[in-house]
Amino acid sequence: MNVLFRGLLAGLLVWPLLLSAEQTKESETGVKEEVQTLKQQVLELNRDLFLLEEELLFPSNTQVSVFVSMDVGEFFQLDSVEVKIDGKQVADYLYTKRELDALIRGGVQRIHIGNLPTGEHELVALFIGKGPKGRDYKRGATTTFKKGLGPKYVELKIVDQTKNYQPEFDIKEW
Amino acid sequence: MPLRTLQLLLLSAWLTTTPGQAARDKPQQVQDLHYGEVLFHFYQEDYFTAISHLMVAQHQDVLQHHRDESELLLGGLQLSYGMLDQAEQQFGALLNTETKTDAELHDRVWYYLTKINYQRGKYEKAHKTLVEINDPGDKRIRAELAVLDANINMALGNNEAAAEALKEARAPEGWEEYLLINRGIAELRAGNIEQGRKTLDKLGKDRAANEELRALRDRANLGLGYELLRAGDAEQARKYLNRVRLQGPFMQSALLGAGWSDVERGDYQQALTPWLHLLKTSSHQPATHEARLAVPYAFGQLGDQARSVYYYEQAIDYFEKEQQLLESAIQTTENGTMLSLLSQAETGTSGGWLQQNPTLKGVPSGHYLVDVLSGHNFQESLKDYRDLGYLTELLNDWLDNIDIYYDMVDTRRQAYEVRAPAVRKRLENQEAIALQERWQYYRDLVTTERSEGNPLNLATGKEKQQWKTLKAAGEKLAALPDEPRYRLMKAKAQWLQGVLYWQIQADYKSRLWEIEKQLAELQTPVEESVRMHQQVETALGSIQDGFTGYDERIEALRSRILGLLPAIDAARGNASGHLQQLALDELEVRKQRLISYRNQARYALARSYDQLATGGDDQP
Question: What is the pTM of this model?
């Protein structure tokens, strides 16, 4: 066998290594360690800035957050959600596939954070998407909630109802 | 499904499940909304945002139901975000505390520690930590552990153990091909060619449902073909190499190998078919370069020295041109074109992989740099570079906002200074308390009325005036002499007084009810005004907290931002230098390889000339 051939095979013998999952040998460069430390420092700083921002913009005694969650999503494929509080639109969100996947896997999206005075408020949520058999589907849900002194959390839940093969839209106060 | 996606799924399968729920197909049941919010970003591979939300939620103590999982999730997120040191520290801390009572959490922590050790290339340590994990009930996790086990063993050179680990693993749906190829590799590396062949043969024949699986099938056939070629079974090798698609990414290597299989069997004429085909491709891959040497070699072997010389000359010409292009690529990289290339990698996101490599439009010899870009080491370093860019952008945004926060606090302070005196004055008047006292007065009045029942107390103002007038008239008439004229007047006055009293008394009950109703309606507003009074009083006392101390806090945060920005900038400079060096190293390797090919071609050409001159007796 000639020189070329031997060289070729020697080179290709390493191919299985390339196939093994995530064979990531970390390069022990200073850059890696430096980047890790900086990431940690920025994350801590970001947390403190985030807390400051929330305290200033959404103090706990007026803070209201609206979250969206969904379960399997078999009977309803969400396109968008509109939220109105006391007749005023506060959110109109169009979902990407990536976001929908995250919701279906158990993620919860904070769709709105704002301020409201203490007392009673009306929340109207409009869910738009595709219902059973791929048909256009639009459903609303309304609730009246009481805002007290602490932060108020409201969850808009989209739940598959296996008993009637229909989606159900529920609003839960936390 | 890309391998990285599979790994993410597995990572999340163990990260985001509660003990006992491990990796079932049902979505995670969230009991704290803030935990769900972290998952929302984690599932989108937005690790920076997910970690930030998690840290804030932990600070605010709003993860009561997911305390243990959130600690585990934090470690996993740090791992995904490339913070191996912090992840190791986090998992280590968990091992020392929480896991004493929770066996499943214990296993999950050992799993991630194993992964960290493996990623760092600490294979011995990874092997030790892997042993600590108990056999999980979930099939997917068992499969993941088997792959990890096999990878560690392969890295340690224990190929038989690796093959054994994968042999026993049962693949969940969609995973069969990945397990098979890993198993086949391990078997081949363990020297069990026959078994490896059986395993990969099955994979190589299966119909693939998508492009990724087709590429995987090509890889299996290509690897098996070369392994058989190396083992001297050229006949079988050709069979497997023939299975590789001509449209796939492994076409060049397969064509080259097919030609060598023919050569091994002594069929030089047949070898020319794949090799000449390979020459027609415009690829710059090593396989195509090698074919440039292989074609004239085959012609030489067939005794066609004229064509052998022709193709050697072409090869030399080609290698020289390629070398010039490579030198131009090296120069372009040295001149900083790499930096402009890196600017294309700015996606405004953090974490995760680039979906598409940056293009190099208009850059001479850009295809060489694009090849370099797709290398794993380069991609890893590019991720760091991008992450640093994202951090700079983020901190600059915060820096802009910091001024707004200053203004905000200042506006609040000024508003307080303007309004507070007037509000304080009104508070001092105790208006709400006075209102409540008045309400109480009337309440008591009504209560008394209920027990004593004097209708005159509920007479209207007009009726009271009329009653007073009639009473005064009666008193005056009583003082007059007892004459018929006056008696008539007295009787009339008494009659009028009686009528008035009767009217008042007739309305008494309804009036009493009306007053009670009004008092009841007033009760809530009166109480509300008292509560508001107290609230305003409290707020007035604490409102200064809304701006006192913030100036110092904001300034401290601003200093931290300003301190970090140059450090990030310097690290980014280092990272770009590192990337540039990686590219230059890779280009240099390619250049040296081309020089070597060119020298071999020149040497072979000289021999061919000699053969032509001596009548073609010598063999090259």
Answer: 0.74
